Give the backbone structure.
Amino acid sequence: MLEKNKCYEIEIIDLGDNGEGIGKVDDFTVFVHGGIPGDKVTAKIIKVKKQYAIGIVDSIVEGSNMRQVPTCPYTKCGGCQTQMIDYNSQLELKKKQVEDAMKRIGGLDVEVEDVLGMEEPICYRNKSQYPVRMVDGRIQVGFYKQRTHDVVDIDQCMVQHPLVNKVMKSLKNHLKNLDIKIYNEEKHRGILRHIVTRISFKTKDMMLIFVTNSKEEQVVLKDLSIELSKEFPEIKSFIQNINTSKGNRVMGYDNITLLGDDKITDYIEDLSFEISPLSFLQVNPSQTEVLYNKALEYAEISKDDEVFDIYCGIGTISLFLAKAAKRVTGVELIDVAIKDAKENAVNNQIDNTEFHADKAEVIIPDLYKKGYQADVIVVDPPRKGCEKEVLDTILKMAPKKVVYVSCKPSTLARDLKILSEKYSVEKVQPVDLFPFTTHVETIVALQRN
Ligand SMILES: C[S@@+](CC[C@H](N)C(=O)[O-])C[C@H]1O[C@@H](n2cnc3c(N)ncnc32)[C@H](O)[C@@H]1O
């Protein structure tokens, strides 16, 4: 048994979901913070559980050849987890992550393509969420330290758009002189909790969202918005979002437009999308185009095809596929997203789509009972994967093609195993939407047997 506070020499053989190294001491698994595959380290054990232990690198005995000096100076920030791994090795590790899931969870013997990475994996995010806290009388605006809610104060973030960095720098200066109470998470008191930014990389239009713990301070925030709008005309929309909940949720459901428009417009290729404060949009615009073009390629849609886009969000994939199809039916849980999807179809003069707001596990079996059939089905579920009812109905409908877009290899592999009752996996293509993190997006083409 391993002893807490003792150091052990460990070879790191894998990377965990949160970017921690994984190694063994006498066959006992240890998750080592600060270790990466290929490292030989001494690690201090900080926790021992029944099945595994957790350690922290004490010293590196032999560094992995994947190691690089992080380009980002904020080593304590938990926003990115794999800054110390060179980009090509990050892509290799993501491929391995997908391969392992296919084999171990899916029981599938399939070839996984090389990950489609970015040419320049920096400044890629179109959305950022900065917690705001007061520490020892100083305002801290940045990102959470890994595994904590301590805020690491950040001046420049290399994965954000340069304009967002400029706006945040100026905003932080304004906040120092602003008469507004900063949120205290432990006491659930104070007003300003988070700053959220959204930006279109095509138009540079930006939305700035002040997340507050009540509806108070509208006048103060409106005055601040006026000041910022003079400095940054690119900010077209200033929103106050009200989140009175305790816990981890960043934004609430109520939005007040303080200044400018209540939405901004973004583009995916030539399609325009209206983005509200709560709209889901993939965070990496250039890689989203890579992903959606793969979806179009894998779906092999013809003009007679009825297509389903399940978990459609604001209809981005639906509209992308609509030009090739007879009709696309989109299904999504969130009412507002479906309202946006319908508006987006009208704004893009697309008239062969229909959208339904409900749980996919309810509406898909229901549409099937009503006689709906699909030739091609695209699913893009959240991390928990597809509900059993959705997979069962896909197997009953038996479209000729299924395209599965996933942000979590383990649930993807679990669902592919179920679909393999009637489908063969033709292509497994990981796409890197989140450089410097352990997250990987994967798109899979399935062909009915
Ligand atoms: C990964 S996002 C995909 C959105 C969209 N396809 C895109 O590329 O922007 C998953 C979507 O599934 C929706 N969702 C989550 N659970 C759902 C459910 N049970 N039924 C239908 N939609 C659901 C979420 O609201 C979210 O919009």
